[in-house]
Amino acid sequence: MKELLMSQLLPQLFNFLIVGLLAVISMMARRWFGISIEGKHRDALQSALANGAKLLLLPGGTVDQAVEYVLHSVPDALKQFGKTSPDDIRQLLEPHILGLPKPPVLVLPAPATGGSPAEGSASREGALPSAGTRR
User: Fold this and answer.
1) Among 102, 5, 10, which residue's Cα sits nearest to residue 57?
2) Quick one: what percent of the chain has pLDDT higher than 70?
3) Is residue 65 part of a domain?
4) Are 92 and 83 in contact (CB under 8 A)?
5) pTM above 0.85, yes or no
6) Count of CB atoms within 10 A of residue 24's CB?
7) Distance between CA atoms of 73 and 30, rounded to whole angstroms?
8) Residues 93, 57, 42, 76: is their CA dihedral positive or negative?
9) Which domain holds residue 95?
10) Could you tell me which of 31, 12, 74, 26 has the C-alpha nearest to residue 49?
């Protein structure tokens, strides 16, 4: 009986345990690498969104340019999260655009009224030096 148990049942039990152990290791690896890949996609997407929003700070920068930048920068990440349409990207860009620093507003003095153009330019000389003049 002991001999039958050792020769017939033990190898089957051993094979069952090995297959079960490999299945558990496989599930753990898939979970670990899946989380790792998702994190990399998330970081890449956030970086592309921030850079796309910064395009709006350039002269003539538009939201459409920012959307195109994101679409071309991280297509795999967008597929991973199911955000492939331009409208989806606009929604993702919105918080990044709202977080941009406001460009400074340059207030120039109003030109003098009621005189010749030469008088108006003379009054502005004190306000802002031109590029060619030194003080």
Assistant:
1) 102
2) 75
3) yes
4) yes
5) no
6) 10
7) 26
8) positive
9) 38-99
10) 74
